[in-house]
Amino acid sequence: MRAVKLIVILFLVYVGIVIAFESLIGYFQPGGGTMLVISTTANDGTPNDRVLSPLKSNGRLYVAANHWPRAWYKRALENPNVQVTLDGEKGDYLAVPVTGEEHDRVNGDNSAPMMFRLLTGFPPRYFVRLDPR
């Protein structure tokens, strides 16, 4: 019984760390390295911007949903006409969900470090290809 309590306590501490890390990323994310801003639109027409890291594979541009909060990803699937700002240039793109072999290739070309995966609670990773319109 004591071992079960210890396991439950450790699990709850881990869940707290994941929640804190995910919350802090949302607050501190805009900074460092190359960033991309994707502007998605909700079904009611409300625009929303999200700062993401651009990924490349086979010369194409991708972004990844690497975290449990992923409202931007759901909005991009519902309304795939998005705007992207990268290197100061704004353009219109079509957000295309990536599956199968393409998903495996993009994931292999842009693997997430184990420490990052641990701190984010091992969320499933989804990719969107951004095709210029």
What this model shows, in words?
The chain is α+β, with helices and mostly antiparallel strands. The protein has one domain (2-132): Pnp Oxidase, Chain A (Roll), CATH 2.30.110. It has four helices and seven strands. It has a seven-stranded antiparallel beta sheet, with helices on both faces. Strand 3 (55-57) and strand 4 form a beta hairpin. The longest helix is centred in the N-terminal third of the chain and has 27 residues, at 2-28. It is elongated, with a radius of gyration of 17 Å. The mean pLDDT is 89.
- CATH level 1 class label: Mainly Beta
Shape: elongated
Low-confidence stretches: none
Strand order in space, largest sheet: 2-1-5-6-7-4-3
Question: Beta-sheet strand percentage?
Answer: 25-35%
Mean of the pLDDT scores? 89
CATH architectural type: Roll
End-to-end C-alpha gap: 60 Å
Radius of gyration: 17 Å
Helical proportion? 25-40%
Look at the helices and sheets and give the structural class. Answer: alpha+beta
Total domain modules: 1
CATH superfamily (homologous) name? Electron Transport, Fmn-binding Protein, Chain A
State the assembly state of the protein chains: single chain
Please name the CATH topology.
Pnp Oxidase, Chain A
Number of strands: 7
The helix/strand order is HEEEEHEEHHE
* Largest pleated sheet: 7 strands, antiparallel
**Helix tally?**
4
